[in-house]
Every structure is written in structure tokens, then in C-alpha cells.
Amino acid sequence: xxxxxxxxxxxxxxxxxxxxxxxRFGQAFTYISKKPRVLQxxxxxxxxxxxxxxxxxxxxxxxxxxxxxxxxxxVVPDHLRRLFGDxxxxxxxxxxxxxxxxxxxxxxxxxxxxxPRPIHDPSVIGMSLMTARQLxxxxxxxLEQYEERLLFGKRIFxxxxxxxxxxxxxxxxxxxxxxxxxxxDVTSIPGGxxxxxxxxEALAKTDVLLxxxxxxxxxxxxxxxxxxxxxxRYGKTNGIxxxxxxxxxxxxxxxxxxxxxxxxxxxxxxxxxxxQKVIDDLKLLE
Length: 286
Hints:
With 286 residues, this protein is an alpha/beta fold. It has twelve helices and 13 strands.
């Protein structure tokens, strides 16, 4: 049986990792509730995603605070039982995470839960998650994609034909030199892995599709497949933020009408360096 994933809300003043709170409320990778549902959902090796919030000019901004992994029941100390309740779980210290402050509100509004009961009003997010709620498989994928961005920053997927490999290598090198996180098949797929599956997984976590347009890529079924997968996620919550065509051959541009709505960059002379404008624009993308 696959361990259950659930999400719950905590008051931010109890879940800051200050020395004072660590001393007062115990270890950080714990969650305590007045209701037994959290134990039923994740107490046997499950994962609990913990959400907190902080005030902004209009309302509150919700943030992913912790991820408690491989949860097991917690014997709640008396001083915490009086404050929070009788039912608690504790996550593995090795596998659990604490995240920097972030903005999770839009993702929370996109979750469906089990059974499907989405949150339609952002003003009730905290109340809706006061009791732990089970996440669907699609919800877990969405949260893991969000987690990837928090931990590793934006991810750039280079789509290209193998016949344009040298240009892809140069582009990857320049992006890496400027601190970008880049996914390219040859350097990112370990030996023995399933090629198609790893590409699909990478596309699901990608923020930017950078596609090299040439007569070779126009004939590549893999480039077409990657482009279609990226466009299907473009503009969606936690989806592709930007599609960047880099034109290596002007004659091939007509073969990619799906990309004509996006601003393109031109790099038709292989003797020239990677266009600095591509690097600068991607550095500015949050």
C-alpha cells in the first residue's frame, strides 16, 4: 500500500524554527492536533505537508512550511497536549524538510483533495486545512513540482535534435556558468534509466522550455513530443512559465507555427557566441 499524503495548517507563530520555539514546542518535524484524523492518514509511514500563513496588505499569504516524511505516531508531551491536542505525528529527521517563506496560495486553490472538495475561497484556506486533508495523486505531483522550484530554483529544459548537439552543449554551458538549473537529456539521464520516462518527469518539473529550431528539430519526433507536452502545461498553475524558441535556421521557423506567439531569439551563425540576450532574459525570470 502506498503511504498516504495529507496537508494541514498550523499557526505560523508556533512553527518558526527559532531557538525559543524549539525549546518551547519541541522538535520542528512534528504536528499535533485535537482530532485523530492526522494519525489515520499519515501515522503509518505517510507524508504530511504543513502549511502556514502570514499577513499581507489584503488578507493572508499561505506558505509551504514543512514536509514531514515517513511519519509515525508521536507521544505528545503534557505541556503540548494542553495547547494543541492529544494526537501527533513525527517525521523522519533525515528525510523531512523545512522551506523558506514562499507563496503557496495559488497552488492550494488548485488542489482537489480526496474526496474531491476543492477550496473555492482563499479566505477560508486556513479553516479548511485545520483538520488534515488527504491529497490526491495529482495534488502530490503539483506539490512536488512546487517543492522542486523552492529547493532548486527555476528549471530550464533544452529541447533539440541530436544533430544540433554541439549548439545545445554550448547553450547549456553558458546557462550553467550563469547559475541556471538546466536539464538536457545527455547530461541529466543516468545510465540504465528509461529514456522516455525520465524526459516526461523532467518536463513535468520544467519552468522554461528552450527549443532549438532547425531543419533537424523540425523532423524530430522527440522535439515535437517535448514541445506538445510543454505547451499543454503552459500558463497553468505550477506549469511552464515561458517557452523560448532559439532559431538556428530561419527556413525552419515556418515549421513551428505553434511557437509563433512567443518572442524568438536568433542564433543562425554557429561561429557566433550564444546570444547574450537569451542568457540575460532567463536570469531575470523568477
